[in-house]
Design goal:
single chain, mainly beta, three-stranded antiparallel beta sheet, two-stranded antiparallel ribbon
Length: 71
């Protein structure tokens, strides 16, 4: 994938966590599950969560494509 910021080739890889990865529009004080309206899980799992991502080391950006997640 080409970086949309600098147009260099990005590296394919993964964003990984020991717990669930979710998106929300505010920061929670304690990590939990998505529970506010509009929040959603990107990768779930108690022992490991993994989602495909592309990384641009020059721009320090990571892009996650979550189009394959079923809500």
């Amino acid at each position: 994938m080409e970086c949309p910021f600098c147009n260099k080739e990005m590296e394919n890889g993964f964003v990984q966590s020991g717990k669930e990865i979710f998106w929300g529009d505010k920061k929670h004080k304690v990590f939990c599950f998505p529970h506010d309206e509009g929040e959603f899980s990107l990768a779930d799992g108690w022992n490991s969560a993994v989602i495909n991502a592309c990384c641009c080391r020059d721009c320090k950006k990571i892009i996650i494509d979550y189009s394959n997640i079923n809500f």
